Amino acid sequence: EPKVDNKNFKGWYTDKKYTNKYNFNNEVTKDLVLYGQTEEIKEYTVTYVDNEKIVKTEKVKENGSLNAPKVSKEGYTFKYFSKDKKVAFDYNIEITEDITLYAVYEINTYKVVFKNYDGSVLQEETLDYGSTPVYKKDVSTREKTDEYTYTFKGWNKEITKVTSNQEYIATYKETKNQYKIIFTNYDGSVLQEETL
Predict the structure, then answer these.
(1) Most-buried pick from 52, 83, 140, 164 (CB within 10 A)?
(2) 13-31: pLDDT as tens digits
(3) Are 113 and 166 in contact, with CB atoms under 8 Å apart?
């Protein structure tokens, strides 16, 4: 078969109108003129869209292969390119028209844990990238000791939008306990009072 730039070779014919395809199994008994039929190779435009912006346009010849660009979006995982944003495009099908392919992503999720001072888990949930964690339970508490009373002060760091797995630990204000000491006489009368 002859090679012709940007054309597909269709076959050899015995007439100029390409109606009678030549059979090469026939015996040649006289001079013969054959006419080669070609057709233009069809070329289609494939447009790649990511985040509502065109990121690449390529010309693909009929039966040619696609070369999709690498794309990314902060906080998301790329899943596939799609014609309808619902179903992954099948790269094995023949391109027969101009098409637009859209990048489809899945939002990343992360674990957010709120812990008490002793490491016990107060609240744990999985949140989407970019959301802000909220502690939804009662204010965290810490039992008082003989020496101190504890008041919830806040978390060990500022609560920020989720961009990775996060852990927040409760912190407490420590107040020294005060005790009243009363010195009494044998008759029960108060000799002295002190607060320590």
Answers:
(1) 140
(2) 888 888 888 888 888 888 8
(3) yes
